[in-house]
Specification:
Mean pLDDT: 72
Helix content: 25-40%
Order of helices and strands: HEHEHEEEHEHEEEE
Distance between the termini: 193 Å
Shape: rod-shaped
Length: 320
């Protein structure tokens, strides 16, 4: 009995062991099958490319091309912008552009001004003819000495208007009838005007509107204004009365003579020619008007009292 029991026990144990072995085998097969299935469904991994001789490739060689993945770089950082404060002021520099040439339509303001000199009698009225200083004769009115001006008289006139150069004054003849003819020639043939001047330099003429001054054009008329001293002609005296009656000035006015600019330029240029290079160093120049056969002469030219040889003949323009 004991032997049978032992046999039964052995048989039971061998059967159990076989069942376990079969179960383990089935389990392993299942794991292998699952592993194989999973490997087949996975993406093929990158394999190291096969080295080959690119210079002499064989037709049967297969080239493994590596898969290139897209690489995305992060965007660059945004630039830093410094914002200006709200109340910041932007300074703009304006370049000053100067024209190469002066515009022809513009005209500079005249720098000329009025300079007063004297037109006087050659001698004092109280002196008798025998007491007067004899005048040297440097030629007669029939044979005057004419010289071309060595320097542009317009330059001399401009300098005289700015108080540069000598003081120039002219004397009129003593004879009443000669003075009358001289004044008539100056006004009718050479364009000399008669006016009254106030203390501010404003000029008044007989043909201006009452109370309105004459806006003198110093490009046409000379600023070298003559103020008569001594006897004047009857005609000139009548013009002065008409001016006073027309304007009825509240302040005192004095009598002046206005010469054309071309005439004074001609006169000063010829005087400078007579005196010579010492003209600008001279302090006082005096001369005397004379008229003969309708021609105006300038005689007895003196530089600081020294008599200069030569006479001047003034050209006459227009019709007399």
């Amino acid at each position: 009995m004991q032997g049978g029991d032992t046999e039964c026990t052995l048989n039971f144990d061998g059967k159990w062991f076989g069942s376990i072995s079969v179960a383990i085998s089935i389990f392993l097969l299942a794991i292998i099958a699952i592993y194989t299935f999973v490997q087949d469904n996975r993406q093929p991994s990158l394999t190291k490319p096969k080295l080959m001789d690119r210079a002499n490739p064989t037709a049967g060689d297969s080239v493994d091309v590596p898969t290139i993945k897209e690489i995305r770089l992060p965007p660059p950082p945004a630039p830093t912008i410094r914002s200006q404060p709200a109340n910041a002021t932007r300074l703009s520099v304006k370049k000053r552009v100067q024209p190469r040439h002066q515009i022809s339509g513009t005209k500079k303001a005249s720098s000329k001004k009025i300079k007063i000199t004297h037109d006087t009698l050659i001698s004092k009225p109280e002196l008798a003819a025998s007491e007067r200083e004899p005048l040297p004769d440097h030629g007669t009115p029939k044979t005057p000495i004419n010289k071309k001006p060595a320097l542009d008289g317009r330059v001399l006139l401009r300098m005289l208007e700015h108080d540069k150069g000598p003081h120039v004054s002219f004397a009129w003849p003593d004879n009443k009838s000669i003075r009358q003819r001289l004044f008539q020639t100056f006004t009718q043939c050479l364009g000399v005007r008669v006016a009254l001047m106030d203390k501010n330099g404003k000029l008044y003429r007989a043909d201006d509107r009452p109370g309105e001054s004459w806006p003198i054009n110093l490009d046409t008329y000379s600023g070298f204004v003559r103020r008569p001293h001594g006897a004047i002609t009857k005609r000139e005296s009548g013009l002065i009365k008409n001016i006073r009656r027309n304007h009825n000035p509240p302040s005192p006015l004095f009598h002046v003579r206005i010469f054309p600019r071309w005439l004074d330029a001609e006169l000063l240029g010829r005087i400078r020619t007579v005196i010579g290079d010492g003209y600008m160093q001279t302090s006082n120049v005096t001369a005397r008007y004379q008229i003969s056969s309708g021609t105006i002469l300038v005689r007895d030219i003196r530089a600081d009292g020294k008599s200069m040889p030569g006479n001047i003949t003034l050209p006459i323009k227009g019709h007399c």
